[in-house]
Design a protein that fits this description.
309 residues, alpha/beta, Rossmann fold, 2 domains, 9 strands
Length: 309
């Protein structure tokens, strides 16, 4: 039966470890120039309702590395843009491709597409979740720390789709997640409840300084996501004290690392001296989108790493 990846909770802890291990192996193969065309003849459909840099390029390059093919599909160029039902597009693309990645405004769109697709569907981002990002983030931290058990991650700013996904990953990784957000922009209660019910150690606070105390990792993201532009003025006002700058970083341990999923609005949620500083691992995160997603696609399309490897 096909397996989708709409949420980080669609895999268990063992699968997470396996995907990260495969991603590291694939990263070594690429760095040494070793061919690894494990998906030769396979095709990935990529539907983008939202603009993208890292998601589009990483999936497209990943399929090229595998000897396969990725198709960039803009809804304006599909019949979706002229009113075709999501389920009809899903059924059709499943007849042509081996998997579909969809980046959508609404998580309901991703879920409906997956419901009617007979090939695996990957959530490349929705308003609720961004599991591919956190998968690569976990790989990045694994490279730095090895075992993630009992690490503390402080999320500072808007409790958005990436934040939601980090909360849902807490039980699998064993990490403690502390979120510092103004009340109106805290992560969804339903997500927090789900994460805690699964055994995740989750704390929600208002003060960024409290969140970063004893943190191993500081994480932030833009304050105004695609689709939230109408709220820009009020978001900027509410989040003005949540910038990850050198003063806030100084309140964390001296060896704390800084993460950002990009794109960054420098001077808003993060400052130049932090994102470009020695504690930043932002560019490792960005690179690892490629390797982690390749490992994910290999598992979804081919069942995992070939036995001969």
């Amino acid at each position: 039966m096909k397996k989708d990846f709409l949420s980080i909770t669609d895999i268990d802890g063992y699968e997470l470890e396996s995907i990260v291990a495969d991603a590291m192996y694939l990263k070594r193969l690429k760095s040494t120039g070793t061919p690894h065309e494990f998906l030769r003849g396979k095709s990935l459909g990529m539907i983008f309702e939202k603009a993208s840099t890292r998601t589009r390029v990483s999936f497209e390059v990943g399929m090229t590395d595998f000897g396969g093919h990725a198709l960039f599909l803009n809804p304006a160029d599909l019949q979706l843009g002229r009113g075709e039902a999501i389920k009809d597009t899903a059924r059709t693309l499943a007849r042509y491709t081996d998997a579909v990645m969809i980046r959508a405004y609404s998580h309901a769109t991703v879920e409906e597409f997956a419901r009617y697709s007979t090939v695996p569907v990957v959530n490349g981002l929705s308003d609720r979740l961004h599991p591919c990002q956190v998968l690569s983030d976990i790989m990045t931290l694994n490279e730095r720390f090895g075992d993630l058990q009992d690490l503390k991650l402080a999320w500072v700013g808007d409790g958005n789709n990436v934040c939601n996904t980090w909360l849902l990953s807490a039980a699998m990784t064993g990490m403690e997640i502390v979120v510092a957000s103004p009340p109106r922009y805290r992560p969804r209660d339903a997500v927090v409840d789900q994460a805690r019910a699964a055994g995740g150690r989750i704390t929600i606070v208002a003060d960024p300084a409290e969140a970063v105390r004893d943190a191993d990792v500081l994480y932030t993201d833009i304050w105004v996501s695609m689709g939230d532009e109408k709220e820009r003025a009020e978001r900027m006002q509410a989040l003005r004290d949540y910038t990850v700058d050198s003063r806030l970083l100084a309140r964390a341990p001296p060896d704390a690392l800084v993460m950002h999923c990009l794109p960054a609005h420098r001077g808003e949620e993060i400052t130049d001296e932090v994102i470009d500083g020695p504690q930043s691992i932002v560019w490792d995160q960005a690179e690892n989108r490629l390797h982690a997603q390749k490992a994910l696609l290999l598992r979804l399309i081919a069942g995992g790493m070939p036995a001969t490897e």
